[in-house]
Amino acid sequence: MKFLYSGPVFEMARQQFDVIADHLGIAEDERDRLLLPKRAIVVSCPIHMDDGRTRVFAGYRVQHHLTLGPAKGGTRFAANVDIGEIAALAVWMSWKCALAELPYGGAKGGVTVDPRTLSVRELENLSRRYMQEMIPFVGPRVDVMAPDMGTNEQVMAWFMDTYSMYQGVTVPEIVTGKPVGTGGTLGRREATGHGVAFLAFRAMEALAIDPVGATAIVQGFGNVGMHAVLGLAARGVKIVGVSDHTAAYWDPKGIVARDLVNHVTRVGALSGFSTEAAIDAQTLLEQPCDVLAPCAVERVIDADVARRLRCRILAEGANGPTTPEADKVLAERNDGVFVIPDILCNAGGVIVSYFEWVQDLQQYFWSRDEVMDRLERALDRSWTMVIARAKRDGVANRTAAMAIGVERVMKAKQARGLFP
Ligand code: NAD
Questions:
Q1: Ligand 1 centroid vs 26 CA: distance in angstroms?
Q2: Whether the model pTM is above 0.85
Q3: For 189-347, which CATH class?
Q4: How far apart are CA 234 and CA 291, in angstroms?
Q5: Each residue of 339-362: pLDDT tens digit?
Q6: Class of domain 2-179
């Protein structure tokens, strides 16, 4: 069973879990039940390409547990997606949802494809076929999908439409992160990045850093990175570095956030934004700043990078950006990088997804202010719990956050017992 979920990303999720299981003193025979996913679905998605050929793409969905309610998690379209990575992301979703006290288990899905190589029609074909293959395994009370890397509101609208056509009725609550006009919620688009910025401000407050004139570097300029940049800049933080998969820029004088957004909206990526500010993408992470926010892919901060980081706050917008080896380095450094761990830092997305699901189920929609206010209160609650727990137990913020999440899932499983 364990070997099905192989690869460096699942290994990382397992190592992190082992730390927590030791910390909480979880019995050996309870550990597999908590860590290993309830089920994994692998499908072949054949589609017609524009040139008349048929191509088959591999699709995955991993549901980690359904102990607290439906499974919940994004769907990733990326060239290197495999079952181990998807399983790891599903496991992290479980601890994240539990930390935020949402009535969900964790899930994640994906298709091994670089969506940038597809035409719009091919992307629609693939999105619809993927959802069609998943219909027997998902549902508003079973597993609720959302966007992740390489997918967006449009893909969610196709997912929702495909599922609804098979049911014969409109079922908006089958996915979250939809366009507002089709049952999506106000505030979902910016929720994750807004949450990253909101928690970075909490950390600045704790470290007595004035946001006005403080500096930030953001890796990744997609949904999360872009809104993190906008959220930070809105309160006076100077954006001194940004990167995406095409380019990296560093300018100690500051880069205007709106100019970045306008460029990416026009061109589709950061490439071509500037010639003077160009910097090597890896070197960017190691420049001095108050806030470093990795908002792209996993494992970008390994032990070597961790030794060279010159940020004061590491705000993890991405899932799994920091390896367990890097965590050890950060814990040993006596100049103290303050880590806002991913399951806390990027929880804004799933919290507002939960609000969207609730609104869809009730067919009663909230104002943007209501959404953002509830989001900030939810993040504040988690933040306070994590900081208090880290202090009480003398552990890293990541250990504290994961311990709260794992403990909640474990207690629910223990209370429900083992069937039959
Ligand atoms: P996205 O597809 O909208 O954007 C991804 C961005 O990362 C793009 O700008 C891309 O160019 C960049 N990128 C990819 N590889 C890179 C690399 N090696 N170096 C620098 N930049 C690179 O994806 P997203 O939704 O913004 O998700 C980003 C991360 O945040 C992922 O780890 C995802 O799991 C996590 N996350 C997303 C949400 C959400 O609501 N979208 C919620 C929680 C966590």
A1: 33
A2: yes
A3: alpha beta
A4: 15
A5: 999 999 999 999 999 999 999 999
A6: alpha beta
